[in-house]
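P.,

For your records, the input lines for the assembly:
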Amino acid sequence: MAATMRSISRRDEMSLAEPAALPVAASVAPRLHVLKRFSSRFKTSLPAYLLLLPSLIFLALFTYGAMGRVFIDALYQRATPKAPVRFVGLDNINAVLADPAFIGAVVNNLIYAVGTAIPSIGLALLFALALSRTHAVNSALRAALFLPVLIPMVAASSLFLFIFLPNVGLLDHYIGRLLPVLPNWLGDPDIALYAIMVITIWKNAGYYMLFFLAGLQAVPEDVMEAAHLDGAGPYPRFRHIILPELKPTFLFVIVVATLNAVTQVDHVFVMTKGGPSNSTNLVLFYIYQQAVEHYDIGKASAATLLTLAALMGLTALSFRTMANREGGP
Amino acid sequence: MLFTRRLMLGLAMAGSMAGALAVPAMAEGPTEIDLFFPVPVDGKLARDMGTLIKEFNETHPAIKATAVYTGSYDDTLIKTRASIKAGKPPAAVIMSANFLLDMQIENELTNLDPLIAADGTTKDQFLGQFFPALQGNAVINRSVYGVPFHNSTPLLYINADKAKEAGLDPNKPPQTWAELTDWAKKLTKRDGDKVTQWGIAIPCAYDYCGWMMETLTMSNGGRYYNEEFGGEVYYDTPSMLGALTWWNDLVTKHKVHAPGATPGPAVSTSFISGNAAMMMLSTGSLTYVRDNAKFNYKVAFIPRNVRNAVPIGGASLIVPAGLEADKQKAAWTLIKWMTSPEKSGWWSRATGYFAPNMAAYKTPEMVDFLNKNPDAKTAVEQLDVAKPWFATYKTVPVRKTLEDEVMLVLNGKKQPKEALVAAQKAADETLKPYNAETSLKLP
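Structure tokens returned:
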């Protein structure tokens, strides 16, 4: 019964949370035909392109230009400080892959990604389910849970720096009575990464909650009612109606959470600088270290390329999965 | 058709507007220069810098200086390097004193010797204005590359009330490591296994940790790095082993120092809140302690094991390479003005750093200030035993190799000896390219 409901609802309703419905080509047209169509289309849309031109120029200058530059820089290196830069091919990429600090940063980043994405998505879903009905109390609670999203990461990190202060911080003030030995939250390599992860979860759960709230609006009311009349309890309703309906939202939020895990390192920068002993070093911070502290643009560019490739691969994969799901039965 | 004509018109208009804007810039006027400045301690400094530059512009109509806030010391280095690469370097930068050597190796600094000679003074006369301890970080290969602007040394801060409580005389602060260990033991309070008050706190975060290791190593007779040549550090040495072992003993053997790595702000907060009875911290924190401590405190020299010696810290004014002659001259005027006795003293009183210009301490305002705040004198007196701050090829990564290992030791994950061997190996690896083109480039 649940299966039929699911298929009906998918055809009829589109999830609000689904960010971009990628059009899937129905059939492949002959090449000539495509070209012709393309040129005629181009003619009619010329004014549009001209209007877009200023943005395109800036996009090319500041986004794609920079990426192209990274690609070129990744291929050059100096042998000694006074030597001129020379073409070294893939040497920089090999050097990055052989660097234990980079491998360490990748491992940290994986732990960080999994350890922040799962709890924050879980919490976000829980919040969304609890607050899905709109009334005054829930609106206030939603606002409260969304508040961390509005605080800039740098400001939040500076606040948490004081919360985590050993012995005198807010956390130790309350937890200190319970623990025999107070942990040095940011100064112990075994704990620091988890302390950083707590901030990310606190910060992002409210953001992901928004997507789930939007997703929940798309769950058809009549199906829920029917299930209710058929005597389905809260758990079966959640398991067989709500969760399947939220699948596209889940996919999208997972992609966003993973991207955030790689691109948001403000708190690492403010709180630990990757320390102690590289235990909170993440990939983006490693790139910063190569570029700024080591002044090694070649290696920094190579690490950037590797990260970009991984991120683009991941994004392409998840959106393809999403498109497949939407297109297939 | 209409659309394109309109577009052309728009483009033409935009072009003429751009042209109109460009004209005034070419007209005669004061030489415009930028000064990059970091704020390493707290936000108030940015306002003080604004006041200083405003006064400079009012007294120097031919120059229009703009102070550009550039973040931390590290950020300032990034932004300076980025603007040098872009071909538009700032005319002057307040640069962390231990970055100068690395920048000079990368050909990013202007040699100031010709500017000094053009003033009709000699190098010795010019450098003679500043405390001798500061010259090591400003002079490279006998040429001047930086002018000391604000400087610091590490100090021992003591909570005098707690010392009295423990039966210690705060007017006779500990002078040796043995005495300090003894004080720390007496000042540690325990409640069963739990420590409610630590005897001493020493900061260890990137940047601070290396500076404290240099402090302890120097007090133990060591050198940390080769002051004459940027390709060598002395990590795996008896003097540094003794320093790190003592620090580790404070944590694990005597249990008077909190385990783990504690950053500078955490240490000062801990001291202010009474959670740590003593701390080793920069003179740069003196103003903060003076303003916030609700108890009597004392500052003292860093105690010795072998000799009294400390490194300097702080920043110098530099002129980046690749600047037009008129901007270079204007920058030089600004630098001389900012490091003059009056301005140097004013900046010192505003920030808590000491004034590098010795004559600053002869100005009436400064004499007055020191009479009111005798604790500010200790930092200046300690300058007699101060030595340069470590500076090598790739200073930051070379320093970090040591810091990562020290953090492991303080967290009980490594023994001092194996940590120092590992640090030395990693540092040598980082220094290799520089040695390959200097000390190991043989005929």
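Two observations worth noting. Strands of chain A lie at 76-77, 86-87. Residues 36-73 of chain A form one domain.

Regards
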